[in-house]
What we know:
Elements: H1 11-22, H2 39-54, E1 58-62, E2 66-71, E3 77-83, E4 101-103, E5 106-108, H3 116-132, E6 139-145, H4 153-161, E7 167-170, E8 173-174, E9 178-181, E10 183-191, E11 198-201, E12 211-217, H5 223-232, E13 237-243, E14 246-252, H6 267-277, H7 283-291, E15 306-307, E16 310-311, E17 313-322, E18 325-334, H8 340-347, E19 352-353, E20 356-364, E21 367-368, H9 374-387, E22 395-397, E23 409-411, E24 414-415, E25 429-431, H10 432-451
Parallel strand pairs: 3-6, 3-7, 7-23, 8-24, 9-22
Antiparallel strand pairs: 1-2, 2-6, 4-5, 5-25, 9-21, 10-18, 10-20, 11-12, 12-14, 13-14, 15-16, 17-18, 19-20
Helix pairs in contact: 1-2, 1-3, 3-10, 5-6, 6-7, 9-10
Amino acid sequence: MKRMNQIEPLTEQMIAALGRLVQYNSVEGEPLPGKPFGEGPAACLKEALQIAEEMGFETANMENYCGYAQMGSGEEIIGLCAHLDVVPAGEGWNTDPFTLVRQGEKLYGRGVSDDKGAVIASLYAMKLVKESGVPLNKRVRLVMGCNEETGSKCMQYYAQHGEPITAGFTPDGNFPGIHGEKGSCHMLVRSKKTRIISMNGGFVSNAVCNRCVTRIPADAVEQDKLRAELAKTPLAEWKLAEENGVLTIEAKGVAAHASTPLLGVNAAGYTMKALRDAGMQDDFVDFYMSHIGVDCDGAGIGCKIADDYGALTLSNGIVKTENGVISCTIDIRYPVTLTPEKLRAMAEPNLEDEKGSIIIEKIGKPLFYPEDSALVQNLLKAYQEVTGDMEHKPEVIGGGTYAKSVPGIIAFGCEFPGDDNHIHDANESLIIRDFQTQVDIYAQAILNLLKG
């Protein structure tokens, strides 16, 4: 393994700095004057900029949409774009999600892998490059955003008000690099008529619905049959309880990122499947199962499609009931060779019948860089030079990163091949050795881009 410098003596500093960021619940909150994403993200950005200043970097706060740390000089900018906001903690943690906890060789806390750990790794990579004595004939700028998880308005603000980035990366994906990102589509499902009294579950739209509580009339289904069908599902836990003529179904599934829904278990979806298979006659149960289902492939809306880089996926994130109407958020990731116009044309004939409706709220374009492009190759070489891993190659993912908002960058790390850091799930973690290696890879990547 090639190392620019020994990072081990700086490890405790890095861990302490990461703890300073993890302490903030930087989930997007209600907008406040001068704080477009609420108190938490703004406070976390202030702390991150303070850390950068302590390390000797120039800093700027761009109206609490984002901020940056910078070194070097010149017209061109090597950009690293990471985010400080996080998804909600959710349930199931063994530790306080907003306190950095060290257990053996792992660090635990919300954001340690997505993406606060990468912010710290990037700062220390810049430190290594700065101290190496390499001429900084370009500026190296770490842009830290506060709204990646809920829309990337932070980077849209940077694109409008900041200087353009010549080339760079966002440390918010996988090694050895992401040369393509599927397009995204957000839809909202609504019931028209249903016997379901209420159905509520999920914690964020871009993760699989991991818990769901459903209330139905006790006479809507035979309970023995429902128990039998629930027992057939992959739900982690389920429970039935009857009181005052109302049957309550509590279902626990498995959370997963919306880009990889097959790694999760949709608590709402399998509740619906069990109700249907147990014989419940209900318009919305029928609509959900015929249009959404549990297969995650989009077949129910006429969008089962794949290309050489992957298949379309569909994920149900949040389910809620308001004024007797059940709504479900749908997050679709579609192949990089498919256009938004083609996706819309495929879906629209299949979005409504007498039992329910689906509206398309937003369709985002895919991103694609050829594997042999200079940017992809410069980053790949940095990974290979540090790790010696020549087997793994850049990939196309279903997740969306800042690369879609900032021209000239791709996602590069910070998760290593084969790792599962429980991103967007309880007990999010980071292996300390990986934390150190991230710094070396990012330092080498900066050097490669300075030469390029």
